[in-house]
Amino acid sequence: MVYLSKKNMRKTIVFYFIFQSFFLHSQIRCASDHYISSLFQINNLYKNSQRNVNKEIVQWISNNNQKESINIITIPVIVHVIWEDNTDENISDMQILSQIEILNKDFRRANIDVINTPSVWNSIAADCEIEFCLASIDPYGNATSGINRVKTSVSTFSLIGDKMKSTNEGGTDPWPINDYLNIWVCDLSGGILGYATSPSNFLSSGDGVVVSYKHFGDNGTVEPPYHKGRTTTHEVGHYLGLKHLWGDSNCGDDQINDTPTQQSENNDCPGFPHNQNSCGTQNLNGDMFMNYMDYVNDFCMNMFTQDQKTRMVASINLYRNNFLTQTICNSSLSVINSTNRQNKKLIKIIDILGRKQNYEKKNIINLYIFDDGSVEKKIKIN
Questions:
Q1: Which of 157, 245, 348, 351 sees the fewest Cβ atoms within 10 Å?
Q2: CATH at residue 49
Q3: String of b and e for 170-193 (b: at least 16 CB within 10 Å)?
Q4: What is the per-residue pLDDT across 68-105, written as a single tens digit (0 to 9) for each?
């Protein structure tokens, strides 16, 4: 938690009323930029370190051009479920597992939605080679399920004060932030779906991701149109150093070279192409609205880009490098070589364009679709 002086407490109170008025009558797809702005107001070390992030990442990429992806990076996750008497908030293990699998599919580009990526961007759509697992070892060396359930007397939580991240405030303290991706799932007020901290050489004590229990995973308590687990995919993107596509300003800079310049966020589910030639560009393809770092409905999201992958790998190496050598996970819920689904049955095989295959073609990507909803991506080599 961030402890405040009286001066900083006054600043926080001012921001509280600003945010309350902003959130009062709207649903907020992502509040990460507002949350980080509030941290800037109360923590100069965090603010100053964030100013250097882009320069440090660009330098790392320049020095590691051929070494950005040596092995699959597996990130251990601890999910803190904070619930009141309302049993809906105490989401099931199945709902939590579905979110971990969604993260793996999205970051490995093994999700069924890949068939919806416009062909003009297929060449830069990335398998990020980042996977996630529920932690199998807790901070004391004991076995754990990777799920921490905490009963609370707090009815709803706000991003102001980060109370869900404090045991003394009705939430739960994070597990060591350098070793685990902490995700808090709770009842968020103000229509907020989720928010996250961004990486730098100074990590706040509340480092991690917060997601509404109504938008975590793809079953149980989830509510459409944000019911496919993409809120968490989006917020983990922030946690690993990505910005919104519009750079949080009109025609801003997301610091990614292979995403088109975008005027602002997109909502609902636009048709392709959308917003052609915006921001004074000659861009006939329009916005990359199906990117996970936009605001469209979950069903319409399906890709990260190669440069987004490079930036996330750089962020891990620079600021979250304990993940490179972690031993907290015994196994991963990888969708690439899944071994934990012994009884699933193959329904069909399709190619990357969604065309049904009657047999396994060699030297191309085949998507294997199973009766449990899982998808595996394979290439059969001669």
A1: 348
A2: 3.40.390.10
A3: bbbebbebebbbbbbbbbbebebb
A4: 455 799 999 999 999 998 779 999 999 999 999 999 99
